[in-house]
Design brief:
heterodimer; A: about 500 residues; mainly alpha; 21 helices; globular; B: about 325 residues; alpha/beta; D-Maltodextrin-Binding Protein, domain 2; 6-stranded mixed beta sheet; 5-stranded mixed beta sheet
């Protein structure tokens, strides 16, 4: 522990040069920007910027690139809150309460809460990385196919109850999402499924394309078809743009809890950071004194997922930094940034390059503070965006959405796909199906399928034997089923009570 | 006024289009038959920017910029398990202004999965620049020390292997091995190399087949043990120079590797083809380029267009034989 502190101090000495601070600021700014512009992902930006870093020292380059990476997590919440378009999977849950709060005229407050929660989550995540990276790496490795299967099932079941009112429709939405995730070359056999011979469908329905359609285009369709639902954003007073004492009081505990939970779930390789957001949201909803208010713009509904996804992002670095194993495409890109500068992350990285590792960790503390400082002043500006005349704002959003849809793969086909997803999203949404559940189902579909088939192979088709053999998986799945049954009983009771009331 | 402006604009566009039409020549050929492109050459890479294939292609564009008459511009077309990039390459005009990266997927995908067309028949190879053999790794606490031990283990107990994709290049070798020695192996499919290695490190699988670059850090740290290079020649790097080949260990029928090379749309002219063949050959003489190729785990191994085609055809032959022998073992 003391050694770590000493090394960390050394790291601060290394990273606190003018050049490095400049790189951290540039990276954070760019990251926030790409987080705001949907479609412009981390991967593309980093790939474009990599050549620019050739001339820098490895530490400066890494600081800049990880700044982009963490900045995007901050920025991702902005579109979720303001216009109800999540830029990536991890900010879907932020829409639940963030957007309703913005519609009440408190966009600034929502953004502040999200920034501060992100800061706390990031800070706690960095602490976790500082003191436990090496030990936690082995925890990440202990996750086998069976545990993956269990946690994905748990996540999908939980999703049905936290998103929306009707649990049956939630279940249908999740199932539909998983089914949509089957389009394309399946990851196991390389066989084309539901592609109708269209080459562009071989790679499946891109997740970002889908959410940009199902959220962005859907908003547009709603504005055209049911304008009366749009209405004006309610009164806009400057006092409401910043969190008050009550908000802080309501949020501090959920933020801390969610940060710790987010870091723990973030250790699950791959899908961890997305899962962490709705685990945190579900936990807060369960613990809250007023669970029925969730989804209408409660502050803890914003703080929890934002703290969780930031903490989880740092946990996601654990396998990369201590073992050299990137589990997501953005992690793989970060790894390439290391490689370009002549460092191959692997099990020996921390012991062979302590200066880099600790410099990077120190830069994360620094980056967190920079992000908070550069984000808070913009809150007022962003919040005012909603005061822009709807007839100007909507075309602008549409333009950015289309440009983003094209920018993901530079493909016109994807733009068409996005529009199609928009129509599907609009009609399903009007029928009361939940887009968040559908989107996350789509996102988790490959993990679900891969872990299920892997489990089947390992245990020769006997899934019960598999669960019995791996007790952790068994516990997770029982918890998931229990939570599912509990909430479906509750929601069906409410349903019948309402129907009886209507009859009477 | 507006109308005038508008019509001027239309006229301007029309004129540009006519000129653009007129400039159909993709390049010029001098008296000695040497072709020079008229503008930059687009290189289609069927992976997202930032991956190792992309970075290698960018090495040829940047570090080797001096050998090209006009710049090479990388055009990333990821997705569809290479199908999108390879399809775009096939549909491009064979005028020498579009070439593409082709790795082993150009053959393997057609034989082990579904593809929109037969890549290796409808693309024109330009050259191979590098080759890498696959390596068999086991967990550090596994009792298996060599292929003979693996044979013994497969025969006497249930051995779990981690593969990166079903039927693909890191899967069939050990299924084939198990079949040849008259037994069976349990293959669990993971999502790519990192996940497979993680499975072995975490004790969920005992053995895996990976590219030399993917496993080397774990061999260095002692977490993985390399037991065989699936080729007839050992690798020369410090980490792998003591690892015996499958041929040395008496399992000569177990060999596999992968290549990195470039191709053009079918029908490209002789002069254009020669421009690229010579260019890549010259690029491989630049120390920085060789260094990068070796860094990504390849051995520099230049093959001209005909040589590269032969590599494709040999791989096709090899895979067809293996797949026929394995039958439904790969899909079970």
């Amino acid at each position: 522990m003391f050694d770590s502190l000493l090394l960390l101090l050394n790291g601060f000495v290394d990273c606190l040069s003018l050049m490095n601070i400049f790189c951290a600021i540039v990276g954070s700014l760019l990251g926030s920007l790409i987080g705001v512009l949907p479609g412009l992902g981390i991967s593309g930006t980093v790939a474009i910027l990599l050549p620019l870093t050739y001339g820098m020292s490895p530490l400066s380059a890494l600081i800049m690139i990880s700044g982009i990476y963490f900045g995007s997590q901050y920025g991702g919440a902005i579109t979720s809150i303001l216009v109800n378009i999540p830029g990536e999977a991890t900010s879907i849950v932020t829409c639940f309460d963030g957007h309703p709060m913005a519609r009440e005229g408190k966009a600034g407050k929502a953004l502040c809460i999200s920034s501060i929660a992100s800061f706390v989550g990031g800070f706690i995540g960095t602490l976790g990385l500082t003191f436990a990276a090496a030990a936690l790496a082995r925890v990440a490795l202990s996750f086998g196919k069976v545990e993956f299967f269990a946690i994905v099932v748990f996540g999908l079941l939980l999703l049905t109850s936290i998103s929306g009112k009707n649990q049956l429709k939630g279940l249908i939405s999740v199932a539909l999402g998983v089914l949509l995730g089957c389009v394309g070359l399946d990851s196991l056999y390389g066989k084309a499924r539901f592609t109708f011979g269209i080459v562009n469908l071989y790679s499946g329905i891109d997740f970002v394309t889908f959410i940009m359609g199902a959220y962005g285009i859907t908003e547009l369709l709603k504005a055209i078809c049911i304008p009366e639902e749009q209405g004006e954003v309610l009164e806009f007073s400057l006092r409401d743009q910043f969190p008050n004492k009550k908000d802080y009081k309501e949020c501090w505990l959920p933020t801390l809890r969610a940060s710790v939970l987010g870091f723990a779930v973030g250790l699950v390789p791959g899908a961890g950071s997305t899962l962490s957001t709705f685990f945190a949201y579900g936990m807060e909803k369960g613990l809250s004194k007023h669970p029925e208010k969730f989804g209408t713009g409660v502050p803890e509904g914003i703080a929890a997922p934002e703290a969780a996804n930031n903490a989880a992002m740092y946990a996601g670095l654990v396998p990369l930094l201590s073992l050299g194993l990137p589990f997501t495409s953005s992690m793989a890109l970060l790894m390439n940034a290391f490689i370009i500068h002549g460092i191959t992350p692997g099990p020996l990285f921390i012991s062979e390059h302590p200066d880099l590792f600790w410099g990077l960790i120190a830069s994360m503390f620094l980056g967190n503070i920079i992000l908070l400082i550069i984000n808070l002043p913009f809150v007022g500006l962003w919040a005012r965006l909603l005061k822009v005349d709807f007839n100007i704002l909507m075309p602008l959003i549409t333009f950015i959405t289309f440009a983003g849809g094209y920018a993901i793969n530079y493909s016109v086909f994807d733009m068409g796909m996005m529009v199609a997803c928009g129509f599907v999203g609009f009609f399903l949404g009007q029928c009361g199906y939940n887009m968040a559940a559908l989107a996350v189902g789509l996102f988790l579909s490959p993990t679900f399928e891969g872990s299920l088939l892997g489990t089947m192979t390992l245990y020769h088709g006997d899934i019960f034997a598999a669960l019995w053999d791996r007790k952790l998986a068994l516990v997770i799945i029982i918890l998931g089923i229990a939570a599912f049954i509990f909430s479906s009983v509750k929601s069906s009771r409410k349903f019948f009570a309402e129907r009886n009331a209507m009859k009477a | 006024m507006k109308k005038v402006l508008l019509s001027l604009l239309v006229l301007l566009m029309a004129v540009t289009m006519v000129f653009a039409q007129g400039q159909k020549e993709s390049g010029s050929v001098d008296a000695d038959g040497n072709w020079t492109p008229s503008k930059e050459v687009s290189v289609i890479v069927s992976y997202a920017a930032g991956g190792s294939t992309d970075l290698l292609a960018r090495t040829f564009a940047n570090e080797a910029a001096s050998v090209w008459a006009t710049p090479l511009v990388i055009n990333n077309m990821p997705g569809g398990g290479n199908a999108i990039g390879f399809s775009a390459l096939r549909q491009a005009a064979p005028d020498g202004l579009t070439i593409g990266n082709t790795n082993s997927s150009v053959v393997v995908n057609c034989l082990t999965g579904e593809t929109p067309f037969v890549y290796y028949e409808e693309l024109q190879p330009i050259c191979q620049v590098g080759f890498a053999p696959y390596i068999v790794y086991v967990a550090k606490d596994s009792p298996i020390q060599n292929l003979a031990d693996l044979e013994e283990a497969v025969k006497t107990r249930d051995v779990v292997m981690a593969a990166n994709n079903r039927g693909g290049q890191t899967h069939w070798e050990l299924e084939y091995f198990a079949m040849k020695v008259g037994s069976d192996i349990t293959a669990v499919i993971y999502d790519g190399g990192s996940a497979s290695i993680a499975a072995v490190l975490g004790g969920h699988a005992e053995v895996t087949v990976q590219a030399p670059s993917d496993g080397q850090e774990y061999v260095r740290s002692g977490d993985l043990r390399a037991i065989a290079v699936l080729d007839d020649a050992r690798l020369e790097t410090d980490i792998y120079k003591d690892v015996p080949t499958s041929v040395e260990q008496g399992y000569g029928w177990l060999q596999n590797g992968f290549f990195h090379g470039y191709s053009a749309p079918k029908g490209i002219g002789e002069a254009q083809l020669k421009y690229f063949e010579d260019g890549f050959k010259k690029a491989l003489e630049i120390p920085e380029v060789r260094e990068k190729i070796e860094y990504y785990g390849f051995t520099v191994d230049y093959q001209d267009a005909e040589g590269f085609r032969q590599v494709w055809l040999d791989t096709v032959e090899q895979y067809k034989t293996v797949i026929a022998e394995l039958g439904d073992r790969l899909t079970e």
